[in-house]
Structures are given as C-alpha cells and as structure tokens.
Amino acid sequence: MISGGSPGARDMRAVLLLFAAGLCSPGVIAAEANEPDAWDVTRLMRELGEVKSAKARFVERKHLAILSAPLEATGTLLYTAPGRLEKHTLTPRQESLVLEGDRLTLENQERNQRRTFALQDQPVIWAFVESIRSTLAGDLATLTRFYEASLDGRERRWRLTLKPSDPRMQDVVNEIRISGDRNWINAIEIIETSGDRSVMTITRDSP
After folding, report:
1. Domain tally, the chain
2. Which of 36, 61, 114, 191 has its CA 20 to 30 A from that of 90?
3. Which domain holds residue 102?
4. Which string of DSSP letters, residue by residue, matches the chain?
5. CATH code: domain of residue 130
C-alpha cells in the first residue's frame, strides 16, 4: 500500500491517461450575437454549472506513436458539483482516480497501490484536472487561469478548445478538445506534444 508523497513523471503521465482518459474575457471568445441569451461561452458555462451530479460510462482510446492500434479502456465516471470527480476504469484493469477539492487520489486495485497528493504541489496535474473539472462546474474564472480557450459550434454540437498558458503544461499537452450537446460533455480529446493522443467518448448511464 502506498499513500502520500509527490508523483514523479510516470505518475503525471498516468494521470493524463487516466483522465483522458466552463471562460469569457475580452479578445478570447466572441459571442454569436449581442442578445443576452445567445449561444456563447457564458451561456455554455451557465448551463454546465446547473448540473449538480452526473453518472456516465466511457470508452477511451489511446493512440500511441509506438503502437499500430489504439489501446482501449472502459469504465464509469461520477461527478458531484462543485468539486468531486471520479473515474473508475474497469477494463483492461481496475484503476481509479478520485478528485476531491484539492486532493487527488490514484489507486490500482490489482497492485494494492494508493497514492494521494495535493494538486497545488503538482502544477501540471493541477492544470490538467481543472480543464475537466472547471468545465463541468462551469467555473469560468478557474478555467481561464490555466488556459486560452475558444468555443465553436452551436448549442446541440459545440467544441471547446483549450490551449495551456503555463509553459510547464505546454511541454506536455498541445491542446484539449471538449465537445458536447447542451449541458452534456460527450467527448474529451487530449493532444500531447509527443504526438500521442487520447479520445474519451462519454455516454449517459442508464437510470
């Protein structure tokens, strides 16, 4: 059993793979119209922020330059506003990632390993997890703290593109693309600087 301590480079990459599996400021994103209810990033963040809990299933495909075919994983996602996010991978092996406030816990059940650390101690991982959590929470202020962003599409088919503003994050990730339908996120794509990428497809869990 492992608990506490700071993650190394391998742990940082594990977080990226485990996860991949809400911004408006002058000059960053332009609204589609001057109408107060136009479909723009402000409205997107407001609608996302109204979701207090969600449960979903995911399929994640990791495209690695050294492999001819993508690696595939499946599992479940749980979100409870404003700051709890869980990712439980069921296949090909059981792993979990739980984000609660400023604490992140990684667990590998098969190896009986568990590691918990504070996000503030790991700026790259902090920036990465906030790309997902802040979007889910509709937290515009936190999202723009870490990323430059642009919104494309319409209410039923939108895509939010996040480009890291911190040089340390820029060394790892080129951009993160989050797409959805109204207040539901249905895909997260992470483009790494190495050329590798991961695509997580998310579907609502049956009631």
Report:
1. 1
2. 191
3. 9-204
4. ---SS---HHHHHHHHHHHT-----TTT---S-SSTT-SSHHHHHHHHHT--EEEEEEEEEEE-TT-SS-EEEEEEEEEETTTEEEEEEEESS-EEEEEETTEEEEEETTTTEEEEEEGGG-HHHHHHHHHHHHHHHT-HHHHHHHEEEEEEEETTEEEEEEEE-SHHHHTTEEEEEEEEETTEEEEEEEEETTS-EEEEEEEEPP-
5. 2.50.20.10
